[in-house]
Design brief:
Order of helices and strands: HHHHEEHHHH
Helix content: 55-70%
Radius of gyration: 39 Å
Length: 262
């Protein structure tokens, strides 16, 4: 059974079995019925579409997010007039993430149905969550479900898994490219201006002058006066420290002399 075949293409496997008539599981909770709902779903049914249509739909979804959401947001971070490559790569990253989210949603639903088809038992609820039951499939139903799970659903789940890996790789490559393009050039030819101009992490007086106005004579005189006052306070403090040390030393000597006399 091909990956893209619809429910009606599976032939006699979908004919109602005697086991279906005896099955107590509500019809909407049977794995075969859930598979039919998936294939008929407007979005989740993408997993059962033939490969060209599947790729075209994901591509259209990615393009939709690229032009309506990702690129406008990227334009706020990178000016397209001066950084067009950065803006495009950033928008592509967002598109890959959006496609991956939808692919993950489809993957989770198809893998859930695959597991129920391949399982020998079916968990179901008769009227609500509080009365859960487990039904052991009849051999006839089990054989039918496992054929569907193995040859219809499993290839779809595998294709969705590869889609998620491809989207993840796309995000990783886009981020790596964005980092390489947007990172400053350290230690490469032509990067001397970065150091000379006082780039990030490098301070140069010549670069500071470009952004700070020169000091006026009054400001220079005030700065010199403050430095002189600070120096005077320092010298006075050192003098007090020296006198205190001398006084303490004389007191210690007198105390030692008095102790020796006694």
């Amino acid at each position: 059974f091909g990956t893209g075949h619809r429910w009606s293409d599976t032939g006699s496997l979908l004919d109602e079995l005697d086991a279906d008539q005896r099955c107590p599981v509500p019809k909407d909770q049977r794995p075969a019925s859930q598979l039919a709902e998936l294939q008929d779903s407007l979005l989740l049914g993408w997993g059962a579409v033939e490969l060209p249509g599947y790729v075209a739909r994901l591509g259209a979804l990615g393009a939709f997010f690229y032009f309506t959401l990702a690129y406008p947001i990227a334009s706020y971070s990178y000016d397209p007039s001066t950084q067009p490559v950065e803006a495009v790569v950033c928008a592509m990253t967002g598109s890959f993430v959006a496609v991956a989210v939808f692919a993950l949603l489809i993957y989770n639903n198809w893998s859930y149905v695959r597991d129920r088809l391949l399982s020998a038992t079916v968990e179901y609820e008769e009227t609500g969550w509080y009365d859960g039951q487990t039904y052991v499939k009849d051999p006839e139903m089990l054989a039918r479900d496992r054929l569907l799970g193995t040859y219809v659903v499993r290839p779809i789940v595998e294709r969705l898994r590869k889609t998620l890996l491809a989207c993840g790789s796309g995000v990783f490559v886009s981020l790596a490219a964005l980092n390489a393009i947007d990172a400053p050039e350290y230690g490469v030819q032509g990067g001397g201006d970065f150091y000379e101009n006082g780039g990030a992490g490098f301070y140069k007086e010549s670069s500071a002058v470009k952004y700070e106005p020169p000091a006026t004579p009054e400001e220079l005189a005030l700065e010199e006066a403050e430095e002189a006052e600070e120096l005077a306070r320092y010298e006075a403090a050192m003098d007090r420290y020296a006198r205190d040390n001398k006084s303490a030393a004389r007191a210690q000597l007198a105390e030692d002399a008095a102790s020796s006399v006694e």
